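Appendix C reproduces, verbatim, an entry submitted by the partner laboratory led by Prof. M.T., so that reviewers can inspect both the input and the predicted structure.
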Amino acid sequence: MKLKGIGLFLTFIWCWFMGVTAISIGFGALFPSMNRIAKPFVCPGGRMELETQTYRPYPGSTITTLTWYCVDESSGAKKELGIFPMSLYSGTIYGWLLFGLVVIGMRILANREPKVGGGSTRAPVSTVFDSAPAKPRVSESTKARLKELKELRAADLISEAEYEEKRAEILKRL
């Protein structure tokens, strides 16, 4: 499962979209201070301040507004920041971070999958559509050898250790 070409591009677009919408806007509404990551881009040379206002227009309802300001360090002048530029900048940063995590996760998963060909010793992974796990095919001669070996052990003509050793040899050849 490797990301190449168009798949990598589409994954990046998805991560950027999720960074802006889910992380910056969504989680940013729950944890507003996390959008301070955009400060170098939306408020260079100043500091970002958050002002919250709570209204109760009628009983049983509460409205809270969040307003971000860029405060100039030298003059103290406040300039209101729009939510969209701040969300785009912080969301882009979060999108890059998410993209990095997705790519790392995909590489880890790709390394866990069995390799096709090339002498891999791992058994193939069953798919969802398999009704039962695959059983190894045993030839009639192998069945006869295992049966004979079992009879020798039952007749106490070979020891348990010899039985296990020979059985392992026969099964290894499958």
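The mean pLDDT is 83. Additional entries are available on request from the coordinating office.
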